[in-house]
Amino acid sequence: MVKEFNTALRAVDEGDDAYTLKFKVDGRELTAYKPSDGQLAMLMVAVSKHVSQSTQIAGVIDFFVSVMDNTSHGYIVDRLMDREDMFGIEEVQAIMEWMVEEWTGRPSQPLSVSTQ
């Protein structure tokens, strides 16, 4: 016998202010959506003390771009991949801390993925 699990269907209104954050990076407006419980769990794993710093950084970046709308996602990835662009992990970390505070309604603990 095989145990089967089914996920309940939930409609998420991506236009709902409770789920959407708007912010600007160098004058460009970006949109992020509140993460699912699964996405938050993956972020917690990524920044745990049991993984290397490079894995932590990769996990934070993956999470960060995964909560963006398509246009914002492309903009952020293009900036991060441009070796001449100074936008990097420190900026991502600051934005992520603000997002977590907004989504949870309480100040977040700083993410420990800053570069040496």
Explain what the structure shows.
The protein has 116 residues and is mainly α. The protein has a domain at 37-104. The protein has helices at residues 37-46, 53-66, 70-81, 89-104; strands spanning 20-25, 28-33. The chain has a two-stranded antiparallel sheet. Strand 1 (20-25) and strand 2 (28-33) form a beta hairpin. Helix 1 (37-46) runs antiparallel to helix 2 and helix 2 (53-66) crosses helix 4 (89-104). The chain is globular, with a radius of gyration of 16 Å. The model has no long low-confidence stretch (mean pLDDT 83).
What features would you highlight for this structure?
globular, single chain, mainly alpha, 116 residues, 2 strands
In terms of topology, how is this protein built?
Elements (H helix, E strand, L loop, with lengths): L19 E6 L2 E6 L3 H10 L6 H14 L3 H12 L7 H16 L12
Antiparallel strand pairs: 1-2
Helix pairs in contact: 1-2, 2-4
